[in-house]
Design goal:
Strand content: 25-35%
Distance between the termini: 13 Å
Helix content: 10-25%
CATH superfamily of the domain at 33-156: Gcn5-related N-acetyltransferase (GNAT)
Oligomer: single chain
Number of strands: 7
CATH topology of the domain at 33-156: Aminopeptidase
Strand order of the largest sheet: 1-2-3-4-5-7-6
Structural class: alpha+beta
CATH class of the domain at 33-156: Alpha Beta
Length: 205
């Protein structure tokens, strides 16, 4: 069994309604949900969701299609997709970084010896927004990072209006980010994934 397949946070989760009919027949079956690491073959679906989510707001995407393929080839284990009935509905893509704070290079580089996970993008398909899926996916991703022995911190940069969302996910603001994209400025945020030995002993990691 591979290390990834042993992680409880990536096992398929099947959501079904209770059996309520007299004969034990299921009246309704909710879509099966699955959380798994992404592969380069998922890049097209990832980009379609990301493009729709970001271009209307900021005019650009955090990752272009070739960059998505780049990271999903280099470090697919630092990504997480949420699938319902085989359809991608939300995702996170990350890579490793080896410095205390993010710099412009962090947008395109993966540092295999790093201990900070740089979260490049979290996006939810437009049909599934306003349902709390972004928060749920981030929670599962952070639990998953706690199972990775090399991960010590999660870093991300976001615009001001997203700071409250990430604070609710447990991130703290570090201040203005050195990275800029065009005229956009960002706040850098951090979440510690250290000090969870008890959780690791009891989570199958």
């Amino acid at each position: 069994m591979s290390a990834l397949s042993a992680l409880p946070f990536l096992k398929p989760v099947h959501l079904r309604s209770p059996r309520g009919s007299p004969g034990g027949q299921r009246r309704h079956t909710l879509p099966a949900s699955e959380f798994r690491c992404l592969s380069p073959g998922d890049a097209g679906s990832v980009f379609e969701i990301e493009r729709e989510a970001f271009i209307s707001v900021s005019g650009d995407c955090p990752l272009h299609l070739d960059e998505i393929r780049h990271f999903l080839n280099l470090c697919p284990e630092l990504s997480l997709g949420w699938f319902e009935e085989g359809r991608l509905v939300a995702f996170i893509i990350g890579s490793l970084w080896d410095q205390e704070r993010l710099s412009q290079e962090a947008l395109t580089l993966h540092k295999p010896q790093g201990t900070a996970v740089h979260i490049h993008v979290l996006a939810v398909h437009r049909t599934f927004r306003q349902q709390g899926k972004g928060s749920i996916l981030m929670w599962r991703y952070l639990q998953y990072l706690r199972c990775l022995p090399f991960a010590r911190r999660a870093l991300l940069m976001c615009e001001d209006f997203l700071v409250p969302f990430y604070q609710k996910c447990g991130f703290e603001a570090l201040g203005p980010c050195e990275v800029t994209v065009g005229e956009l400025a960002f706040v850098e945020m951090q979440h510690s994934v250290r000090g969870h030995a008890f959780m690791r002993r009891n989570s199958g990691c």
